Each structure stands twice: as C-alpha cells, then as structure tokens.
Amino acid sequence: MKIDEIELRLIEVPYRAPFKTSFGEDAEKHAIIVTVRSEGVEGYGEGVMDPFPMYREETIPGAMHLLRNAFGPELLANGCDHPSELTARWSGWRGNPMAKTALELAVWDCYARQQGVPLRTLLGGDRTEIPVGASLGMNPVEKTVESVTQHVEQGYKRVKLKIEPGWDVELLAAVRAVHPDIELTVDANSAYTLDMLPLLRQIDEFGLHYIEQPLHWDDLVDHAALAKELRTELCLDETLTSPARVKAALDLGACTVVNIKVGRVGGLQSVREIHDLCVARGVPMWCGGMLETGIGRAHNIHLATMPGFVFPGDTASASRTYARDITEQQLETTDGIMPVPEGPGIGVTLDRAFVDEVTQSVDVVR
Ligand code: OSB
Ligand code: MG
Fold this sequence. Notes:
Blueprint: E1 5-21, E2 24-38, E3 41-47, H1 60-78, H2 86-89, H3 97-115, H4 119-123, E4 129-131, E5 134-136, H5 141-153, E6 159-162, H6 169-178, E7 184-187, H7 197-203, E8 211-212, H8 221-229, E9 234-236, H9 243-252, E10 257-260, H10 262-265, H11 268-281, E11 285-287, H12 294-303, E12 337-339, H13 352-358, E13 359-365
Parallel strand pairs: 5-6, 6-7, 7-8, 8-9, 9-10, 10-11
Antiparallel strand pairs: 1-2, 1-13, 2-3, 4-12
Residues 187, 189, 212-213, 237, 288 line the site of magnesium ion.
C-alpha cells in the first residue's frame, strides 16, 4: 500500500459516569484517533495512552510526538506491503507500544478494507460473536452489589470488580452474599505489595476466577512468588508489554491467565505472536479494555474472535461507558454476547458530526 496521509485527531468524550480504579478516577476519555488514507480508502486506529502516565508510562503528548516525527514519517516514506511488518520496522524506536499500536491498527483496518474482508478474517477469527463480561469501577458497596446484579441480569458472562487495600474483603463478602456462584474476578491495578500476603490470602477465599495484576505494574518476580502462595490463579495486565514479556511471565510462573490489550503489547502482530504462544502452552487469554470509543472497541471485538480467547473479556456494551459514542454503529451486547461488526475492516465508521464536536485538535502528516 502507498500511504497518502495520516490524520492524528485528539478527542475528549465524556464518560456516562466517572470510572474509578486504584490508580485514579477519570470523567472523560482522551484519545488519539488515527486515520490512515491510502488510495481512496481510510482505516482507523485508537491510541489508549492517557494524558498522564497513570496506567502505564505512555502519555498522549509523547505519543503525538512519536507519531508525527517517527512512525508516521517512516510509514509515509516506505509504504506497507502487509501490516504485519510494521512492528519490526519500528523496533529501533524502543518501547512506546501504545503509540505504535494506534497507527498499526489504522493500517490493519485500511488493509482489510482494501481487501474487502473483515479484520477478523486476517487474524484467523471464525467467530461472528464473542461472549463478554463487564468491569465495574469502584463505587460504594451497596451500589456495587446492585450493579453486579444488573450485569448478571443483562447476561454478562463474568463480572470484574476493581479493588485496592481496604476496599476488597468487605466488598467481596457483600457481593458473594448475593451472588455465591457467578464468575467473579478482581482487578487491583497494582495496588498491593507482597508484604500484604495475609490480606491477599483473605481475597483468596472468595472463589474468584482469577486475580488481575495485584502487584507492581512492571513486576514479574513478586507475582511468581505470590502465585505459589495462593490457590486463585493470577492474571497479568499492566506487566505484559510484549511477546517476550508474556513468555517471561509464563516461564517464571508469574501468571497462568493472560489479559491482552493490543495497545499495551504493541499491536496486532504482537497479539498474534502472544496468541500462538498461549495456545501452544494451553494458557487461557481474554481481551481487556481501556474504555475505548467505538474505534478501539471494534478492534478489540475483532481480535477477540481468535481461537485462543477462551475467557470472556471486558469488551462490553459501549453504552455502559458512553451516552454517545463516536461511531455510527452502536456496539451493544445481547445476553452477554457481542456481535462482531460486519463489513470490511473493523466494520464501523465515524459519526463525523459528533467527532467534530469532541475534537480538540487535528494534525495531518503527509
Ligand atoms: O485494568 O483493565 C484495566 C480501564 C482503564 C484502564 C485499565 C483497565 C480498565 C478496565 C475497564 O478495567 C475495561 C473496559 O470496560 O474497557
Ligand atoms: Mg486490568
């Protein structure tokens, strides 16, 4: 493909309600929407880095700098025969997986549209719908229990609760009192340390499907030590930033469940490599979320059709997160099942009027 231009659009979209985790609280989504234009066809990608490094280190200003001055110009200068080659081409620029992914995803979408096939087809995903769960932000205990009940009634296949030290045992006891048997998980977003083992042992008593990222956001060694002390399986999120890191985590026994976020691991080509590794080792994967708009959410749905994604992920109905989304197609579940958007590429298009309303800035790289 010859790439004609790359548009970098900064948007700010309000959440329906603030989303609270152990690392902070946000009332609106800040995202980079990348559009790649090639021979009359557009493709879209979404960057999941935040304005400040709260979840991992990348930031929107840092990503904009690299997209404008490194990855963007390299892509414009050299074009692309197949989107799978981009990660290796950009590997001389270290790290920054989310920035690379925002552009790589746009190229994958554009390429799939030019071929006239759904993105999932390029990834080997046969399924036309995926089972999903929901991730609930921190709220008072009573409100959380009500919310769990609503999500169970809506058919979500598992519920994930955000926890932190002091906001864990009481919450879990209240939820388990009403829902003793549902598929329940917790996500600490790195809020615990290994010396809190007695508390972690209490969390171990609630029959959780797994515990997501209890310890430091870049740690493998302490997670491997913790895994030996608990019955509940450990799932890593923040720590898993590349195929090599996933292999290291599995070799060390730091986790037995893998959360995939395409932005965190550096793009769809990295997802494919991790997928094949996890399938070969019999390690269950699931697709995480970063409260994406319809662009990132559609990408997540397509990648979660790959056969190794055996646990329900976080790609729930967009209307849980947004009163109005930026895509024309509404990404909604029925009975906990998310249909894959149909048509070429990711199968969604931008609601131009609304995108313009929420746009903070537009840069075009040619
Ligand atoms: O750790 O999975 C996480 C949202 C923002 C940052 C990190 C995480 C999350 C979620 C929400 O859990 C998942 C979603 O609904 O997209
Ligand atoms: Mg997580």
